[in-house]
Specification:
- Chain B: This is Trimethylamine:corrinoid methyltransferase.
- The complex is a heterodimer of chains A (218) and B (475).
- With 218 residues, chain A is an alpha/beta fold.
- Chain A contains 10 helices and 4 strands; from the N terminus they run ααααβαβαβααβαα.
- In chain A, helix 5 links the parallel strand 1 and strand 2.
- Chain B has 475 residues and is α/β, with parallel strands linked by helices.
- In chain B, helix 6 links the parallel strand 9 and strand 10.
- The chains are: A alpha/beta (218), B alpha/beta (475).
Chain lengths: 218, 475
């Protein structure tokens, strides 16, 4: 039995690394049926798998399409586990992260990837979706007592909206309570400094490392 | 004897059009704005799962009513070109949010003063037949950024302008600016507005409502589809072309539903999304192939065309910048695009450089010369005889040479073609900088004045006041 579980764990790990959504869901279910706790599955299989994906990306062996497919496989696995984790009586995630694509922009690829990576690293992610006005970011920070705000923009014109999100947070006295990540293809480190955001990661994996360090972890 | 670059045969263009029509009928288009969605539905679309399925006959009817040719004028009402006949109107790339100063490695925020300088330089450069609202001034409040840019161009240059609105509210005011300058702006258009669907197959509130307003107001709309290979469109060039075509057709259908005969230009800015960095490379060969292919699709439909080419994804004015700009400018010209936006641009359409603008002007002139091709010279045989038999091979002494060389030969002004002995040894970027300084010191742009300027200033004030802002004095 233990061997069987060990083999399934390995298969789930591979399914996430290889971005096989259907396999990720199936092995997650089978692991649950074998009695492995949902928290163990997340911390001992899914998180290491997403870290492995990050390492492969770092080495240049993985490109963005592989990252996105792994994030999708991770998400499918989490869809199975999330209700069970809730059912176990919550030991809530340590931090809440609010993610969204800024107003005027309806791209969500990068935001979805970042959400998956942050969730894999133990954050409770509130996904606000796309075309999110600054007020909604701020309201979500207040409502969920978030520690992290991630705002994404794909176009140079909508990137300007990121500044407005920070201004809104300042206006409501929330700026110093949160770590702000500005992401998106045209976003540079210099831009992040200029608008007064905190974190620029070349990718979601780098961003999560920086955020955890700022939160006194990792 | 005019060279031409083509990717698709007529039969292939027909096939791809068929595929795009099927996409519109089965996948449909998402309109974020409910009012615009209603226009599409009342025009024959069908709502399914939040997307509007557009039947083939609606698109075909739109293609029947969309104008084949658009005459483009300058600010003063002189005809510049007929769009739809391969007009090759090079113009600076638009809406850069950074400017790179000479000698700097790091772009900075552009100001209104930078935009004014860019407009003056572009006004001088012969390779650029049009202006664009090329920079987004940093110090101007977001509410009025788009329209203030247009004000600067209209005031400081007579060339036609490629522009666009960032908001729904400002577009009518921007059109009012055109009306202030010249009341017959719709009959004799001198401004083109960009509207971009959001890939894949979506229209945001701002751009779709801009498209609707432009159709109502009779101002040419350039529909710029931007598929990003592998990220916001299929990764294959073929798949992205179909998506691109479907997106543009959906825009044409919308504009014609609002007002049959509304002027539209088939445009695009396809990119290859870098599989590692996620950056949108505009000059990647795959992106360029999509552009060349949709030029053939526009030709098949007999519509005016636009592209973002003659620009670079490099971070600085270097070898890569020159190579990418020159090869895309040449291809765009040889493909016979009507409007070619991009001169001066670096870094994925986000940075402008005045020095690059001056150097790109030469690339545009070279591309234009290439595309003009070989003109038949009925005096060629006589000139050859005279040169060999009477002038002993010295064609420099021939009257024929004197008569024709200015019209036949392009002589770059800034690119260094001097012999080593006469070359100053000054790096090209420095020469370009000196040229920028010279133009700014010497060129007197045709400033708008009199009633037209007073009316334009009045709209400028109204623009600020409509947002509850105190107008900053016009630049």
């Amino acid at each position: 039995m233990a061997g069987d579980v060990g083999e399934l764990r390995e298969k789930l790990f591979q399914a996430v690394v290889e971005g096989d959504e259907a396999a990720a869901e199936e092995y997650t279910r089978r692991l649950v049926e074998r009695g492995l706790g949902p928290r163990e599955i997340v911390s001992e299989v899914l998180v290491p798998a997403m870290r492995r994906v990050g390492e492969l990306y770092e080495k240049g062996e993985y490109f963005i399409p592989e990252l996105v497919m792994s994030a999708e496989a991770f998400r499918r696995s989490m869809e199975v586990l999330r209700p069970l984790i809730r059912g176990q009586g919550e030991s809530p995630a340590r931090w809440v992260a609010v993610f969204g694509t800024v107003r005027g922009d309806i791209h969500e690829l990068g935001k979805n990837l970042a959400a998956a990576v942050f969730e894999a690293e133990g954050f409770h992610v509130v996904d606000l979706g796309v075309d999110v006005p600054p007020e909604k970011f701020a309201e979500a920070v207040e409502k969920y007592n978030a520690r992290v705000v991630g705002m994404s923009a794909l176009m140079t014109t909508t990137m300007l909206e990121q500044r407005n999100v920070i201004e809104e947070l300042k206006k409501r006295g929330l700026r110093d309570k949160v770590i702000v990540i500005a992401g998106g293809a045209p976003v540079t480190e210099e831009w992040v400094r200029e608008i007064g955001a905190d974190v620029w990661g070349r990718d979601a994996f780098e961003a999560v490392k920086i955020v955890k360090r700022m939160l006194g972890e990792g | 004897m005019v060279p031409s670059v083509s990717v698709l045969s007529r039969r292939e263009a027909e096939e791809i059009t068929g595929e795009a029509l099927r996409v519109l009928e089965t996948v449909g288009v998402f309109f974020e704005d409910k009012g615009v969605e209603r226009i599409a539905l009342e025009g024959g679309g069908r709502l399914k799962d939040g997307r509007v399925l557009i039947p083939e006959d609606v698109v075909k009817e739109a293609l029947r009513t969309a104008p084949r040719r658009i005459r483009l004028y300058d600010r003063d009402g002189r005809e510049v070109a007929v769009l739809g006949e391969g007009a090759r109107i090079f113009n600076p790339g638009s809406a850069a949010i950074r400017i790179l100063d000479h000698g700097s490695q790091t772009p900075r925020n552009p100001t209104l003063e930078d935009l004014k300088k860019l407009v003056i330089v572009a006004d001088y450069l012969k390779g650029l037949k049009a202006q664009s609202t090329a920079l987004v001034p940093f110090e101007v409040p977001a509410e009025v950024k788009d329209a203030v840019r247009l004000y600067v161009v209209l005031k400081y240059s007579g060339k036609p302008v490629v522009t666009g609105a960032f908001t729904v509210e400002n577009l009518p005011l921007m059109v009012e600016m055109l009306g202030a300058v010249r009341e017959d702006y719709a009959e004799k258009p001198f401004a083109i507005f960009d509207v971009c669907p959001t890939p894949p197959l979506s229209w945001s509130t701002v751009t779709s409502r801009n498209l609707v307003d432009l159709a109502r107001l009779g101002v040419p709309a350039e529909i710029i589809s931007m598929p990003g290979l592998g990220a916001t469109s299929p990764v294959t060039v073929y798949g992205a072309i179909i998506q691109h075509h479907a997106e543009v057709l959906s825009g044409i259908a919308l504009s014609q539903l609002v007002k049959p005969g509304a002027p539209v230009i088939y445009g695009g800015s396809p990119t290859m999304i870098h599989p590692y960095y996620g950056t949108p490379s505009i000059t990647a060969p795959e992106a360029v192939l999509i552009s060349l292919a949709y030029r053939d699709l526009a030709r098949y439909l007999d519509l005016p065309s636009h592209t973002y080419m003659g620009l670079s994804d490099s971070k600085t004015v270097d070898y890569q910048a020159g190579a990418e700009t020159a090869y895309t400018a040449a291809l765009a010209a040889l493909a016979g695009f009507d409007v070619i936006s991009g001169a001066g641009m670096l870094e994925y359409e986000s940075v402008q450089s005045l020095e690059k603008l001056v150097l790109d002007n030469e690339a545009c002139l070279i591309a234009e010369r290439l595309a003009r091709g070989v003109e038949v010279d009925p005096q060629a045989l006589d000139a050859l005889k005279e040169g060999v038999l009477e002038k002993k091979g010295n064609f420099l002494a021939l009257r024929h040479t004197r008569q024709h060389y200015r019209s036949e030969i392009l002589v770059p002004k800034v690119w260094d073609l001097a012999p080593r002995a006469k070359s100053t040894g000054v790096p090209l970027a420095e020469l370009a900088h000196r040229e920028v300084e010279r133009i700014l010191a010497e060129h007197k742009p045709p400033l708008l004045d009199g009633d037209a300027l007073r009316r334009l200033d009045a709209v400028y004030s109204k623009l600020w006041e409509s947002h509850g802002l105190k107008p900053v004095p016009p630049p």
